Amino acid sequence: MDHIVGSRSKAFASICFETVKKSDIIAGMKEAVETATREVDWGYSPETLRRDLRFLRDQYGLRIRMGRKTIFDDVFSIDSIEKMNLREAAFHVGELTKEIAKYPPNLIRTSEVKTIRFADFKARRFSRGTGGFYNQEEKIIYLLSFSFESFHHEIFHAFDTELEDPSNSYENWVNIFPSFLYLGDELSCNVLELRKLRRKGFAGTWGRKNPLEDRATAAEELMTMSRFYDPKKDKILTQKIKLIKEFFEVVSDGLMGKQYFRDLRGKRVGVDYWQQRKLK
Questions:
Q1: What pTM does this model have?
Q2: Architecture in CATH of 47-279
């Protein structure tokens, strides 16, 4: 399914009995029942899927690709992509919509990411041992089944490589954190091997590969708060996350500042967050 598109649903909402004809009421109720039935039978709501896809397209300039091998897949030796069914696709798109709403639309557009590619690799274990990757040349983010962490990790790679950073965040990072901490290409992709590595000072063991991966794993932790590290016990990681916050504030023109991160931690950042910010 290279690109899912759809028109606005005419789902039945509230009805004023004084002004609406009986036939219109019956038609509306019938459509509401049919919509609910489809959601139960198919395992997803077509109307919600169309709404989410419009949101991603109109607000963030993104198109979604799923299944079907493309010429870009050959770069990564992907030979076993399976096409997702609509129920899986709807779930992934819904989760992506929630997570991408954590970023101001202009930040995504400025990063020049145009496509997010969902791929299903049920047929074999993916040798890279990763949940996703960013194709800088084609401006495509690949997500091998959806996870919060993988999305934020890969979108940060796009920010880090595509956006001009007047604060020289990357250079500061390299100067502060010595290169001997990184393992480079010697870092194994094997999950069991990664778990054995000392993680203190890093948001994730994959961050021990190089500064770019270190920054992306720190951003992943910041945007998902998935590991709940203790800032009192890990001062190095606290410093890294502070630098990522400063980076976000600069490249978002101040939108992702202190108030934003208070709202994020308080779970007040939803799909209408940036629209509400405009109204204040």
A1: 0.76
A2: 3-Layer(aba) Sandwich (3.40)
